[in-house]
Design goal:
The complex is a heterodimer of chains A (about 240) and B (about 900). Chain A is α/β, with parallel strands linked by helices. Chain A has seven helices and ten strands. The longest helix of chain B is centred in the middle third of the chain and has 51 residues. Classes of the chains: A alpha/beta (about 240), B alpha+beta (about 900).
Chain lengths: ~240, ~900
């Protein structure tokens, strides 16, 4: 599903260059739930941005569904995001002027799905994330947990195979956060989604199939979580240290 | 506090918020610049007009003036003999076209003849006090001794301004260069005998000022034996006083001081007693007052524009500054969490806003001055060519306006920052850190605005429903503003209605992004209303102004159709009859009758300006019996036939509707009119009729009555009727041949005359077109500003949409759609509000000013044009923000929070 090879990202000129990623090689298979962890500045979010086609790498390559990203134009990257990737952010990033239901159906409409069909999907997804009665509410009328559920429903409406989540529980209390993890797990199991989640939350390890630890722009640790339902995931990260 | 400003504000200004700081400052600059430029234009126009009036008011302490037919010259000696009079000088002046220089016709850029309107004064060659300006000094006149002699004895001598002479390239051709003026006796060539340096009148008339010897001026301007007025100078008193010289020693110096107020009144009364009802004795300053009403329409239009621009300016500032503060609401939360007090955090934003406000205002004042200069240039070429001789292109900036704009800009910025900052400081620090947008922040208040809007309409309606209130200018303008404010306040509610109505069309045209744009407007009608408000205000003004002009044009057209039945008209110096045109001698009519057999009948018209108890009016004398047989009067009161019969019988007049309105006259009333030959005479009003000839109002009487009381048989206009079946072109040529032996007169067919009147109306309202340009400019700037702000405010939203799969061009398209939609809503509401305003303009304002009653004609064509232009304007304004939106850096935008 996703492959990165010696992925590097740096900012600034040669003399004052700041490395965010220093050569990350990963392979993530379909329907795997990955938690990317690590201290601040370790390169977690940068990795997510590279994999999410939101930013270009300085060196190395990213493949999504067998397609290399480095040669794609801005429009092609957008179309790739549109068809393959759903995003969930720490601060939800819902459009404040749209209702929950409208926020959910927007990506489907952008993708050219007929309005009726998009609405049907949105209603089904809101139902699935436990918000069937809240569709007409605006973001500022929802709680943090509810907003994140709407954001997840939005990420799913296009039926994209890949879901990227950047600290999805970072702005929520523990109980609500746990609910979000449960929801992601359940979606992974029922829809066969591939999920890559950047998180600081130690509870994440209990929910993910695999936990990748980054430090200083390198993979420090790549561990399969045996407590979670097993997959056929293969860890090929380097260097791999025992956790 | 200083630490806060240094650490937080300075960092914000210099780093993260560089663009926003720039845009906020530019927003303030824009607001201030629109206010001050309009203020400067208005002020400069008024100052130019005032100084023109003052400069032409003469140099005397008192002025003795009759009606516009002048005062007999025998009165000069009598005035001179009055005790207390030091000097009395006659004034002869005329405004006449200068048509050629050295025999070469003056043409405009289009190649057509374009004479310059010149103010020519007759002066006594041996009396420098006869130059009509108190600041005139001998050295202002550049003239050789021999030329002085020529000037006094040769009738073809003229002194031009150095400015005009240089413009025409004849600056150094004294004694040789020739100019042609249209005089009362026809076109006449004059030789330039000297030049005038820049002093009062030269400046105000923009160089279009000339002097000729008074004896010849009387002949050339049809004023033989008469003066326009007599200027009276009182003796200066010499007092002695002790002063310390440069060497420290005391010495006695003599100083001349002008006559006291009491002396002035005494002399004035003494002269008035001598001249009786023939003339009025006044201070020069008081004389100009009436002429100002001529320009009231223009002033009113400009006043309204000033008010609106002030309103839009404040609007722009509020929009930019408040958005920035709403965006930084989280900072307030963070600062509060760090221990900064509410007052400190609000003060920090207020000081930031003050700095941006001051810098923005300063920039706004500078750019406003440049803008004003440009606008005045347009106004000057449009307005002053032939209507106003005042040079209005000179910029006049008052300190008060500069200081006021600075305070306005800074004050509005601070206020716009304090309100949202207070809101953020009031909630808990955690609450304040939650992301919000202006749309959400404003959302809750839309109901209040709807109520405010309805109240504004109710109050405005109430004022306009009461006839007594409709007569009070300030109340009428107040209700005009209330209607604009009311529409703006109702914008959120009306936006929902309009956008809902067009949403299906927008979705069909723009697909999902079109729908998203429409939904965006629907979801945040308050934010939309900020943009639409600025736009609709400008548009409403444009619509009302063009409808006002259209109504005037059509009303005058209809009046022309019935009231001007003559086949041909002859006028001199001015194409239309007016109290300032140079009158012709009546014998011309006999000459034409004798030599042009095609002519069946000639009617003579004479028009003069008079003052009755300090109020200006015009009198027109005409052959009432013969007129009634030919033409019609559009009667408002009284029977047309009976009135025409009564006019021939003695002291009877009919008055125009505007005079009747202003003076509250009705059929059956009596007015007392001062006459030169028989003192004050009572005239009975036998009818009121529609007439647009005079903005002051017209008193129409039979020619025989006029001759009896004024003894003046001169003619301003001959109305000619031809025998049936005669070719007009041939007759016109024959008549012209006879008349032009004597006068450079205009011989116009009925159609040509009507066209001239239409052109004149067009020209008189040319100021309106420039008001329209201003209004559209305000609309464009308003829309541009608010769209840019909207894009900045929604940077994160745009990044989210891009993240979830919208293409850059889709985002750009959505912003363009949004701009055009706002333009559409603005156009619909602007046209609606403009229609209401124009109804007030047409039905109420002319009544207050000139007293004219005009019918309402909606300027459909102009309004369609304006609407299309406004959509194009919206598209242009949306382009830059759309481009910016498409180039949003996704990561930066998403990480902002």
């Amino acid at each position: 599903m996703i492959k990165t090879d010696k992925l590097e990202k740096w900012y600034g000129e040669t003399k004052v260059r700041v490395h965010a990623l220093r050569g990350v090689s990963l392979s993530i298979v379909k329907a795997e739930f990955i938690a990317v962890m690590g201290p601040s500045g370790s390169g977690k979010s940068t990795l997510l941005h590279m994999v999410g086609a939101l930013d270009r790498s300085s060196a190395g390559e990213v493949w999504i569904g067998g397609r290399a990203l480095s040669g794609l134009s801005d429009n092609e990257l957008t179309l790739l995001r549109r068809s393959q990737i759903g995003f969930v952010f720490q601060f939800f990033n819902l459009l404040p002027t749209l209702t929950a239901r409208e926020n959910v159906l927007l990506p489907a409409l952008l993708d050219g799905v007929a309005t009726k069909e998009a609405e049907r999907r949105a209603d089904a997804l809101l139902d699935r994330v436990g918000l069937s009665g809240r569709g007409r509410h605006r973001p500022d009328e929802l709680s943090g947990g509810e907003m994140q559920r709407v954001a997840i429903a939005r990420a799913l409406v296009k039926e994209a195979p890949l879901l990227l989540a950047d600290e999805p529980t970072g702005n929520l209390d523990t109980t609500t956060g746990r609910g979000i993890f449960d929801l992601l797990r359940e979606l992974k199991a029922s829809a066969g989604l591939t999920i890559v989640m950047v998180t600081h939350d130690p509870n994440a390890a209990h929910h993910a199939d695999r936990v990748i630890h980054l430090r200083d722009g390198l993979v420090e640790n790549d561990v399969r979580n045996h407590k979670s339902a097993g997959t056929d995931a293969a860890a090929t990260g380097s260097p791999v240290a025992a956790g | 506090m200083r630490t806060l400003l240094r650490l937080v504000s300075l960092n914000y200004f210099l780093r993260k918020g560089k663009l926003k700081t720039f845009l906020t400052t530019a927003g303030v600059a824009l607001g201030v610049s629109s206010v001050i430029s309009i203020e400067i234009v208005t002020r400069s126009t008024l100052v130019a007009i005032e100084s023109m009036l003052e400069e032409t008011a003469g140099r005397g302490e008192l002025v003795v003036a009759g009606d516009s037919s002048g005062i007999d010259e025998e009165w000069l000696e009598k005035v001179r003999k009055v005790e207390g009079v030091d000097h009395a000088v006659p004034v002869i002046r005329a405004s006449v076209p200068l048509t050629a220089v050295n025999g070469k016709r003056l043409v405009g850029p289009d190649g057509k003849a374009r004479p310059r309107l010149f103010h020519v004064f007759g002066v006594d060659a041996v009396d420098d006090k006869s130059v009509p300006d108190k600041d005139f000094k001998d050295e202002d006149l550049v003239m050789e001794e021999e030329d002085k002699l020529d000037f006094a004895i040769k009738g073809n001598s003229i002194v031009l301004t150095q400015k005009f002479a240089d413009e025409m390239g004849i600056g150094d051709a004294v004694g040789k260069a020739k100019v042609t003026l249209v005089t009362s006796r026809g076109e006449k060539e004059y030789v330039m005998r000297g030049t005038l340096k820049s002093f009062g009148p030269v400046k105000v008339f923009g160089g279009h000022f000339a002097l000729i010897s008074s004896d010849f001026a009387q002949k050339d301007f049809g004023k033989v034996g008469r003066f326009d007025e007599i200027n009276v100078l009182l003796p200066k008193k010499t007092i002695k006083k002790v002063e310390k010289g440069a060497d420290g020693k005391e010495k006695i110096v003599e100083e001349k001081i002008p006559a006291s107020q009491a002396e002035l009144v005494k002399v004035r009364d003494a002269i008035q007693a001598v001249v009786g009802t023939v003339a009025r004795v006044e201070r020069p300053r008081d004389r100009g007052k009436n002429s100002e009403t001529l320009l009231q329409t223009m002033q009113a239009g400009l006043k309204l524009v000033s008010l609106v621009s002030l309103f839009v300016g404040m609007f722009l500032i509020y929009n930019t500054v408040s958005v920035t503060v709403v965006q930084r609401r989280r900072e307030i939360g963070v600062l509060r969490a760090l221990g900064v007090t509410r007052a400190q955090s609000v003060a920090m934003f207020a000081i930031e806003a003050l700095i941006m406000g001051l810098v923005g205002s300063a920039l706004g004042i500078l750019s406003g001055m440049l803008l004003a200069k440009f606008l005045l240039k347009i106004a000057a070429t449009n307005v002053t060519t032939l209507i106003l001789a005042a040079d209005i292109s000179k910029i006049h900036v008052e300190t008060a306006a500069v200081v006021g704009s600075l305070l306005l800009g800074a004050g509005a910025a601070v206020l716009s920052a304090i309100l949202p900052a207070l809101g953020a400081a009031r909630v808990s620090p955690v609450e304040a850190t939650r992301p919000t947008t202006l749309a959400v922040a404003l959302q809750k208040r839309s109901g209040v605005y709807t109520i405010l809007g309805l109240i504004s309409f109710a109050v405005a309606g109430g004022i306009l429903a009461i006839p007594a209130c409709r007569q009070i200018e300030i109340l009428v303008y107040g209700s005009t503003m209330l209607i604009i404010l009311g529409t703006v306040a109702l914008t959120p509610a009306l936006t929902v209605v309009i956008v809902n109505a067009i949403r299906p069309i927008v979705t069909r045209l723009g697909g999902v992004m079109g729908r998203l744009s429409a939904d965006n407007l629907l979801r945040s009608p308050m934010r939309t209303s900020v943009t639409v408000g600025a736009m609709l205000t400008g548009l409403a003004l444009t619509v009302s102004s063009s409808t006002y002009v259209e109504s005037f044009r059509v009303s005058i057209d209809r009046w022309l159709e019935v009231t001007v039945p003559a086949d041909m008209t002859i006028t001199s110096s001015h194409e239309m009859i007016s109290p300032v045109s140079l009158p012709m001698i009546p014998e011309v009519a006999d000459e034409i009758m004798r030599r042009v057999p095609a002519v069946k009948e000639i009617q003579k018209l004479r028009m003069i300006g008079i003052e009755i108890e300090g109020r200006r009016a015009d009198i027109i004398a005409f052959p009432s019996q013969r007129w009634a047989a030919r033409g019609r009067l559009l009667m408002v009161e009284g029977d047309e036939k009976k009135a025409a019969g009564a006019l021939a019988e003695g002291n009877h007049v009919v008055v125009s509707k505007n005079l009747a309105t202003k003076w509250n006259l009705h059929a059956g009333d009596t007015i007392k009119v001062p006459t030169p030959l028989a003192g004050i005479q009572p005239f009975k009003v036998v009818g009121v009729y529609h007439d647009y000839t005079s903005v002051f109002g017209l008193i129409s009487m039979d020619e025989k009555v006029f001759w009896k009381y004024w003894g003046d048989k001169r003619v301003d206009s001959f109305n000619i009727y031809l025998h049936a079946g005669i070719a007009h072109e041939k007759a016109q040529d024959d008549i012209r041949a006879v008349v032009q032996e004597r006068y450079a007169a205009f011989v116009l067919t009925n159609q040509e005359l009507k066209q001239k009147v239409r052109d004149f109306v067009g020209q008189a309202f040319s100021i309106a077109s420039y008001i329209e340009i201003m209004a559209m400019l305000i609309a464009l700037l308003g829309l541009l500003n608010t769209l840019i702000v909207a894009v900045i405010e929604r940077t994160r939203e745009i990044a989210v949409i891009r993240t979830i799969g919208a293409l850059a061009r889709q985002v750009a398209k959505a912003i363009m759609f949004e701009g055009v939609l706002m333009g559409f809503v603005g156009a619909v509401l602007g046209v609606a509000a403009g229609s209401v305003l124009s109804a007030i303009n047409v039905h109420v304002i002319p009544g207050i000013q000139a007293g004219f009653q005009i019918d309402y004609y909606f300027a459909t064509e102009a309004v369609i044009k304006i609407s299309i232009v406004s959509l194009i304007v919206a598209l242009i304004a949306a382009f830059l923000p759309a481009y910016r939106a498409a180039r949003t850096n996704l990561l930066e935008a998403l990480e902002y929070e």
